[in-house]
Structure to design on (148 residues):
């Protein structure tokens, strides 16, 4: 199995030390294992992540010698690598899940169900894992799922 290291920054400004450290660790780990490096740009918040920041980050990484094999400018057929350009892909996947009845939606809230908000329950972190396992193991026609 081939190793693929992924660096997925959210370019809301210039490349900073935390980004650089993550990129370096991904790059070193992948290269040590004769693997590839994937650069995926998490730019979904387009107001905070203008394209100029990601372009500058890419230039900075290249200047530092931290190259990538898959990503912007190096497409292997699995792009686009800017998440803001993948909306149609995500919408199609969400629709497939909806068609299979695998999406919980709370119409009175107008968003997808979050385990921390179910029924207004206040779950402690210690009980959360057990509760999620119980709910996920429930049959699709159980009262829990019917409410959505």
């Amino acid at each position: 199995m081939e190793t693929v290291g992924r660096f997925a920054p959210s370019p809301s400004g210039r490349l900073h030390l935390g980004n650089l450290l993550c990129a370096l660790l991904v790059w070193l780990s992948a290269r040590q294992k004769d693997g590839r490096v994937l650069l995926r740009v998490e730019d979904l918040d387009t107001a905070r992540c203008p394209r100029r920041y990601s372009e500058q980050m890419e230039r900075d990484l290249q200047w530092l010698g931290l190259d990538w094999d898959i990503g912007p400018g190096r497409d292997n057929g699995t792009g686009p690598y800017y998440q803001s350009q993948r909306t149609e892909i995500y919408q199609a996947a969400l629709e497939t899940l909806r068609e299979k009845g695998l999406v919980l939606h709370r119409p009175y809230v107008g968003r997808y169900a979050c385990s921390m908000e179910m029924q207004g329950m206040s779950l402690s972190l210690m009980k959360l894992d057990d509760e999620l396992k119980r709910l996920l193991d429930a049959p699709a026609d159980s009262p829990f799922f019917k409410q959505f």
